[in-house]
Amino acid sequence: MKQEYLRAGGKRLKRSLPSALVLGLLAVTASADSTVLRCGTLVDVERRQLVRQQDILVDDGVIAAVGSELAEPDGATVIDLGGHYCLPGLIDAHTHLMPGGSGLNSSSAEKTLIALKNAQTMLQHGYTTLRIPGDGDIGFGSIALRDAIAEGLFTGPRMQVAPHFLCPLGGHCDRNALAADSGVPTAAHVIAAGEDAAREAVRRELKYGADWIKVHATGGIMSTGDDPWVQAFTDAELAAFSDETHRHGKKITAHIHGAGAVKSAVRAGFDSVEHGTLMDDEAIEMMVESGTWLVPTVYVLDYLVESTQSRRITPEIMAKARAVAKIRDVSFRKAYEAGVRMAVGSDQVFPHRHSAREFAALVRQGVTPMDAIVMGTINGATLLGLEDEIGSVAVGKQADIIAVPGNPLEDISVLEKVEFVTLGGRIFRND
Length: 431
Known about the structure:
The protein is of the alpha/beta class. The chain has helices at about 20-30, 110-125, 140-150, 195-205, 235-245, 260-270, 280-290, 300-305, 315-340, 355-365, 370-375, 380-385; strands at about 1-10, 10-15, 35-45, 50-60, 60-65, 75-90, 90, 125-135, 160, 210-215, 250-260, 270-280, 295, 400-405, 420-425, 425-430. It is built from 12 helices and 16 strands. The model is unreliable at about 1-30 (pLDDT under 50).
């Protein structure tokens, strides 16, 4: 057994830990040495081109130089990625790490542990940054997870978090499948009605550390008794959510399918829209003019329509998925061609190891491979306000770098085969 000192409330606490665990913690928290990555090809997402034979010098977790045949500093580690394509770490702007469902089957602690495992899975598959737009927890486990990873207690991607889904009575996050006399109350801290209640809900989320606020502005697909076409909050309520969030210097996003709610959210000044599957021409034009972001989550709808065995996919859910999918393809392609700003999001109801299937789904919808990569890197960073720190391989940015064994511009599915991952210069995968 070895001793480890932890800080708590300004004091140093000593406890015994197994040697193997101590080594694991040191591997996460130790300062990174200088490293030279010799890439066969670099995907330059800022200039939208491939650059052959590029070296990347990483010093103390930051990219210090990028170029051909860089000199190796004394003592630097050299990693030969000559047969690989290097890219910035992937950014998932719509990921759920906790189990779904009504929230009655697992404690917040159990869900947080599962979330840690899923976050680490995503890191292994190339995702170095995540945004959680609400999760299946009545507590604030996602905030605790974000902070524990940031403090180096656990390995995982950097995260921005909206702790909960804020929705009205009977909305997409309510327990509509339960009988009225079940005795199970609605989750009061995630249900809002009226402008004052909307502001109070925002303040509660921010009190406990929210980076983002997330509201359900229409019904959804993976839920019972609500309608994806129908706006769930009034215009005044959406405006209150947005105003209160921005007054505190934070950002707000909304789960939306129907076109009317997209327009209301844009008018209210929401920073992004999730899904946007049923947008009409006017909604698309408003998003372009306002610069509102869209996180389209394409693959999840494809997955639902093609699924045949999941017990979660009831006949009602399948009917909604198929009805929405018929419109989504046309709406999405119009939005893409019109120039709506987009970032990648997975919205997992499938295993987290398959998150990168989103890229191939985007390309099937007519997105160019380079545009898909841009959406999943520098665009995601810009949405999160981190474009000066991450999102591209550039001097001065964090060394979030991945490598894949083939050309993603020829076969975008190669992003599902990540073989090398660094996060802030620390190597977490090297096959």
